[in-house]
Structure formats: structure tokens, C-alpha cells
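Example 122.
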Amino acid sequence: MRRIILLMTVGSLVVVGTLLAVSVAGAHKHPTAKAQKHPTRKVLIQNFRFKPAHITIKRGMKVRWINKDSTAHTATANNGRSFDSGRLGKGQRYLHTFKSVGKKRYHCEIHPFMRASVVVKR
Ligand SMILES: [Cu+2]
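Predicted structure in complex with copper (II) ion:
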């Protein structure tokens, strides 16, 4: 039993040591650790607008869209692939984690005049 505890202790020390080395060597290359430091950003969908329409976040952060209208809306990436909330009814929400840097333009599929963007920085 003592032996197992000793092995586990040594094992976890190795893991912690490796994590420290990795985070020191390249803090910006560790999106998981980074994501936990930043809160989720909220974008309201209200009066046929995304509020705020333009946000800047760090890579690994999450954005949560919440539809405050009684009309259904979507938050759909203009490139059609990277994210798509599908139809969000009143009060429904959608969460997406941004894993790559760049300017992500998006719109509402039902009301194409509703346009917005998320800028993701490293
Ligand atoms: Cu809409």
C-alpha cells in the first residue's frame, strides 16, 4: 500500500513538473490552461441585433449567445462550417469555444441583415 502511494506521489510530481515545464516553455501554446483563466463572453440577441456585435476574445475562450427575442435567430459563421447555433428560440442559448485565431464573421440565417464578428487573438 505504501509503495502504491509512493508511486502515485512520484507519478503526480512528474505530471506537475511536465505541466510547469510546458507552461513556462510556451504559455501561449496551452489553450486549455488559458481557457480556464478567462470567463465566458456573453452576446445577447435582442431587437434583431447581436449585442455587442463585435467582440475580441482570446483563443480558447467561449462565447455564449442568448436569444432575448421572441423570434427565432441563429448565430452562424459566414464560412458555414466553424460554428452554427441552429435555430434558437426565445431564451435559448448556444455556447461555442474559439480555438483558432482570426476574425470570425457571423450572421443570422433567418435575418441575413443581422451581422457581427468575433476577433480571436492568441
Ligand atoms: Cu435572426
